[in-house]
Amino acid sequence: MTLTTTSSPPVSGGSGAWRSVRAELRRRTSLKVSVAVVAFFALMTVAAPLISALGGWGPEEFDKSAVDPYLGGLPIGPLGGVSAEHWLGVEPVTGRDLFARVVHGAQVSLLIAFAATAIVVVAGVAAGVAAGYFGGRTDTALSRLMDLTMSFPSLIFMIAMMSVARDVDRTLLMILVIGLFGWPGVARVVRGQTLSLKHREYVDAARVGGSGPWRILARDILPGVAGPVIAYTTLMIPGMIATEAALSYLGVGVRPPTPSWGQMIAESVAYYDTDPMYFLVPSVCLFLTVLAFTLLGDALRDILDPRGGRS
Amino acid sequence: MILYLGRRLLGVIGVLLAIAAVTFVIFYVLPSDPAAAACGKACSDERLEAIRAHMGLDAPLWRQFGDFVTGIFTGRTTGSGQYALRCDFPCLGYSYENSEGVWDLLVDRLPVSASLAVGAAVLWLLLGLTAGVTAALRKDTLTDRVLMVGAVAAASLPVYFTSVLLIYGLIRLTGLLPYPQYVPFTADPLSWASNLLLPWLALAVLYAAMYARQSRGSMIESMAEPYIRTARAKGLPRRTVVVKHGLRAGMTPVLTIFGMDLGGLLAGAVITESLFGLPGIGRLFYGALSTGDQPVILGVTLLAATFIVVANLAVDLLYAVVDPRVRY
């Protein structure tokens, strides 16, 4: 037994991997910046009401004194009404504070993206491990289901489902709908990884040693798939954020006046010429978040999953 | 090979039926009542029943679905007597909004969406693969870094942001391009291209960035294979080694995502089409959603699914052409 246990899994989520994450973090400046950006927006998500209280305005508070009714409601002052009062300027016509809206928008956008990602990861890992480890009919059935889900025109389907549901919690529905189409990606990665792990010597050793399937899954397989899953998940988050933004942009996301980035961009597109600041604020936030998560995911993949999840 | 193809085609039909069934269930058990909408405000109960019967909405759900599926292959007749409405093969039903055949609507709009998708695909393949392969061959040099930083940034730009920047830069500021207005290819190829160039660019920026990242990765992998060393050792020119041996094998992962991307776009890029006001399937779909026009929604979903499934099949068959190690 002692002999067989010396062969270690190729990709471990253990301390070795985290040490190299930390080492990489010190080495790459781009990674440092992206971690900072992610932390910044994560903080915004958690503490949105507190942060926007700093600015002194609520996200749904109108300020008619900040817009010029004779100019079609354009903000008064330079750069879309940036002032000590309104840090990032105001929305045209309504005069709502952009800082407050973008902070609360971060909360809505990122919460939906994170929650959908959580669903996708849990469902994907469960399905992937089951398909890979149990094989046979379970594998056939689950693989078919993955193929079927992946054949759905997902964006079209999401839009349709969001637009037909009327009296439901939009945020919850959006999380479920986005999550519904994401799991096969994770499941495929996990299935491949599980297949390559399940006949490794240390797993066989555990089996010979009398471990039941659940114990093997939890103690031997799951830690082995953790690395690729973490990398894949981080790379998936920008897609989730972009999907949420796209749905909100198309007007089937969260209901106004609750702000979300996609919805703010959709409203501001008409003003890109007359009030560029209004358009730029949510767009740049969206861009930075997506970029930061992509860079972070790239780095994690390089460290935790050198073969890119293919086996 | 023929056996494989037969099995795959059966699978395709199965997948499409499943998608049609799911779509059908979701959109036909809705609270909205199209018959009541068609009947208008002053509507008697008998009239409502008559319209329901005419639309075939009085039958149980499975019957409606069965009628719908057989209608696709054989055509079908709804209503009876003088109100009978014959819908010929391939029947996808009639739009609740303007009573036009859904099939005709789709055929009418498809050239726009297809022009957008195919043109953008050509552009993003050219840009993306060139950037990806160049970066892979110059791995860890300045060129590589610049290209990849550019790619990761471009991949993070949402398509509506790129579109607005392009509209502002190329139309508003410099007037280099006209505001897109769809001109059929058959009418005037040159004006077709110049009108679509902007939407092509908007889509291509995003996809090219993703393809550059993907193709760099797989190219680096395939250039590390032993057969590349063999090809080099044989004294083949570098060009042949890169293109015939490295690129061909490195293209399989790219081909996979290309099938899904192109298939998905052919049935309409909803955001791009609405941003640029192109009358494609995406716009048709978006319009149908706001009016609850279920036959159109179902038709577009099915068409989109068909494109994706067929594109995936085509890709699987192409593997054998691209990668000599794949045989069916």
Automatic annotation (TrEMBL), chain A:
GO terms for cellular component: plasma membrane. CDD domains: TM_PBP2. The keyword Transport applies. It is found in: Cell membrane. It is a multi-pass membrane protein. Pfam families: BPD_transp_1. GO terms for biological process: transmembrane transport. Residues 106-297 form the ABC transmembrane type-1 domain. The chain crosses the membrane at residues 35-57, 108-133, 145-165, 171-190, 229-252, 277-300. InterPro entries: BP-dependent_transpt_permease, MetI-like, MetI-like_sf. Its main location: membrane. Keywords: Cell membrane, Membrane, Transmembrane, Transmembrane helix, Transport. Belongs to the binding-protein-dependent transport system permease family. This is Peptide ABC transporter permease.
UniProtKB/TrEMBL annotation, chain B:
Its main location: membrane. It is found in: Cell membrane. InterPro entries: BPD_transp_1_N, MetI-like, MetI-like_sf. It is a multi-pass membrane protein. The chain crosses the membrane at residues 9-30, 112-134, 146-171, 191-212, 254-276, 296-322. One of its GO terms (cellular component) is plasma membrane. Gene3D superfamilies: MetI-like. PANTHER family: DIPEPTIDE TRANSPORT SYSTEM PERMEASE PROTEIN DPPB-RELATED. This is ABC transporter permease.
